[in-house]
Write a structure and sequence with these properties.
Length: about 170
Amino acid sequence: DPAANGSFLREQAKLYAIDADIGHGALFNTIIAEHSFAVEPLGICIDASRGWAFIPLIDGEIQIWDVRRESATFETQIGVIIPPVTVRGTLAVDPSAEHLLALTAGKMYVYDIGPDTLSAEVPVLQDPQDVIVDPAGTYAYVSDGTGNVTVVPLAALSTLPIINTGGSLRGMAI
């Protein structure tokens, strides 16, 4: 479980691995690895069941890295997804670890994890900011820069009526 062994932080064209295991004594909360990129990473999303990290880059690609400590390919890039257009930094993986959700202007892309292929494009509001999935994997929630939330039933990959929060959302959690 990558969450038990470390955390990841991005800054400019670098990604840092930070020891988040309090049992590691003096190593706790220290940088244990630094990875440089040719372009800026926009975020990171961990698929804990596979031990993969999905890292969207400002040039449009989503790199896939192995973050399983016991793996021979630990902390190396093992794949790449090239979306039709540049995605925003926020990604989400559904609890079944079958789908990666990525946002772009007016759309939520749904990728099948494994073959890393685009399986669906779901219309959302024009300025999506954040995407989260409920613990059951039933719904994705996509916030918009205007304070609205699009609810997407993942089985149907359609949209339900928009939720207007009346303000600008800075993030979401379930």
